[in-house]
Amino acid sequence: MRKYSFGTIITSVNNLPVATHLPFLVDERGDEVIISSHFAKANPQALDVSGNNNLIIFTEPHAYISPKNYPKQEEVPTWNYIAVHAYGKARILETEEENLELLKRTINNYEPEYYKQWDKLPQQFKSKMIKGIVGFEIEVTDLQAKSKLSQNRSEVEKENIINSLSQSKFETEREIAEYMASLKNH
Questions:
Q1: Residues 7-53: pLDDT tens digits?
Q2: pTM for the whole structure
Q3: How many domains does the chain have?
Q4: What is the CATH number of the domain that holds 42?
Q5: By residue range, what is the domain housing residue 118?
Q6: Residues 137, 36: contact at Cβ < 8 Å?
Q7: Dihedral sign for Cα atoms in the order 175, 179, 181, 185
């Protein structure tokens, strides 16, 4: 979740799912996992996050799996992936101080070099920016790992897939190969 921290938060209003794609911070506080981010205040989903059940989906890495990796002709393409589903209720960050702290942590997570510039900005400017967001944190109550890594395939087929993906120009496909190879050692 930390490595692929750009996720999708899903809420439901009148049985209609609503989704927003956001960068998230993932922290551990004792035994709790806390996921934090912020909406633009203009985003109507910001009104629905508090007190309701929320789902955040992190969906990387993933890779196309070609039928060329299988010895039989009668095969079809598929997809391997790793994903995490995190569920929980949100608490809205009410104060300017809480939201400033969230932005500070977000900047330090994604671009620490920018923090020096942010820190020098006038407080009036920062306060204006804070008024345009709705910061929140979600205490995770259920965490589910999802994956499809060709578990149903023979060792030869898995090795073919690992070798093929290891040569890919796409980093996420090479990462899937690394995960698959690590599973062979368990």
A1: 999 998 888 899 999 999 999 999 999 999 999 999 999 988 887 88
A2: 0.85
A3: 1
A4: 2.30.110.10
A5: 6-151
A6: yes
A7: positive
